[in-house]
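User: Please fill in residues for this 226-position structure.
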């Protein structure tokens, strides 16, 4: 089974690129940020103030992930919450929840279980996949872009009334929390191949990742789509 780890900051285009690569090789896809967001939504809905209390309130099946790259789904207690986990309330609180060691321990086990169930391969995106969740990944990528480019991408994605400056500030604030927490912070490591997407289109990023996978001969298990 092939695991491709794609880490990097918010707004670098990880999700779109990871989905496209997974779809091309007919592999599974895992958006680990969606898991952190689902736990945050749970905390908001149940008014759980201390994130360390969240895992004890969840049962084994509370969070489910459907990793089809064409139609990924995140379920919280049996309900699809794809849209709700992108709300402003969740986005504002998710970095604080994700910094909690109990939350990370709970989701580490869940992420590894999901990866272990993948058929021939899986593209996993997040902040600590290559460093912590799956250090044995066959290919580790750090996908980044400068703050202005990331804010522009987010601006295009969100149908909100936020100004460019507000989006930049919010991304920068999350960068600081995600990179400075004590448990598996966002960081670059030597084995990662760095792709700076500041001046690249999504298509160019996807082409580069596909090229690396083919060059490393990781795609033998599955025939790429046309
Ligand atoms: O990728 P995203 O914006 O949906 O991620 C939401 C938050 O989850 C982000 O602030 C950092 C956190 N996260 C994390 O700490 N570790 C991961 N592997 C994935 C996301």
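Assistant: Residues filled in for all 226 positions:
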């Amino acid at each position: 089974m092939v695991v491709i780890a794609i880490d990097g900051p918010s707004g670098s285009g990880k999700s779109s690129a990871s989905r496209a690569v997974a779809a091309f090789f007919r592999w599974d896809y895992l958006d680990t940020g969606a898991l952190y967001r689902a736990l945050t939504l749970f905390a908001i809905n149940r008014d759980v103030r201390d994130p360390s209390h969240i895992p004890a309130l969840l049962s084994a099946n509370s969070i489910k992930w459907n990793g089809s790259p064409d139609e990924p789904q995140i379920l919280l207690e049996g309900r699809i919450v794809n849209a709700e986990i992108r709300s402003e309330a969740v986005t504002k609180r998710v970095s604080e929840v994700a910094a909690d060691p109990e939350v990370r321990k709970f989701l580490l086990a869940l992420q590894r279980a999901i990866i272990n169930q993948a058929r021939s391969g899986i593209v996993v995106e997040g902040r600590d996949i290559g460093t912590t969740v799956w250090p044995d990944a066959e290919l580790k990528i750090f996908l980044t872009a400068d703050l202005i480019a990331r804010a522009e991408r987010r601006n295009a994605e969100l149908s909100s009334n936020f100004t460019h400056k507000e989006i930049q500030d919010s991304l920068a604030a999350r960068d600081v929390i995600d990179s400075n927490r004590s448990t598996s912070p966002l960081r670059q490591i030597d084995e990662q191949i760095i792709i700076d997407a500041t001046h690249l289109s999504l298509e160019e990023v996807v082409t580069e990742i596909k090229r690396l996978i083919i060059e490393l001969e990781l795609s033998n298990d599955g025939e790429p789509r046309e």
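For context: The chain has nine helices and eight strands.
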